[in-house]
Amino acid sequence: MESEIALLLEGLDEAFDKQSWHGPNLRGSIRGVTAEQAAWRPGPDRHNIWELALHCAYWKYVVRRKLTAEKRGSFVLPGSNFFKRPEELSEAAWKKDIDILEEEHRKLRGVIAGLTLLGPKRNATLQLIRGAAAHDLYHAGQIRLLRRLIPAMLPRGLKAASARDRSA
């Protein structure tokens, strides 16, 4: 059983912040992103990088809550699922929300490390934890795509894109 926990933690960490074969994980996908870039929206009523990062933090909390039977409503921010961001466009506010993501990962990891995978809920627990890792990777991909779109929307990015197009 201990090896199963180790494998779950390894998969969770690879999806979040450890090197893996597939390229950038969730933490790597937001590395180097500025508050302005994180706040950029691809269109009206579309989520930005900032909101996706907090969404991932929230679902780490949900998985932890399901594993521990913690009461609902104990997430660090009011609300659920997606949080409108930015409330304040600053590097400090962006960093604070990244800290929430990292803290929720640390807490989830701690709960998983202490699990015993026995009983009738074993398979559901395994699926829940694997799902948390898959969720991180899904949104890491979305964030990488948004990062590629951002320069095309900024004046300097448009010039660089035009120069590349002319040389192709």
- Range of strand content: under 5%
Major sheet: size, sense and barrel closure?
A: none
Category from helices, strands and their pairing: mainly alpha
Report low-confidence residues grouped into runs of 5 or more.
157-168
Order of helices and strands: HHHHHHH
Mean pLDDT: 89
| Rg computed from alpha carbons, rounded to a whole number of angstroms | 18 Å
Total number of helices: 7
How many domains, in number, for the residues? 1
Oligomerization: single chain
CATH topology: Four Helix Bundle (Hemerythrin (Met), subunit A)
Helical content class:
55-70%
Number of strands: 0
Distance between the termini: 54 Å
Shape, please?
globular
The level 1 CATH classification is Mainly Alpha
User: Per CATH, which architecture?
Assistant: Up-down Bundle
Q: What attributes does this structure have?
A:
single chain, 168 residues, mainly alpha, Four Helix Bundle (Hemerythrin (Met), subunit A), 7 helices
Question: Can you offer a commentary on this structure?
Answer:
- With 168 residues, this protein is mainly α.
- The protein has a single domain (2-167), classed as Four Helix Bundle (Hemerythrin (Met), subunit A) (Up-down Bundle).
- It is built from seven helices and no strands.
- The chain has helices at residues 2-16, 26-30, 35-39, 49-68, 91-113, 122-153, 155-167.
- The protein is globular, with a radius of gyration of 18 Å.
- The termini are far apart.
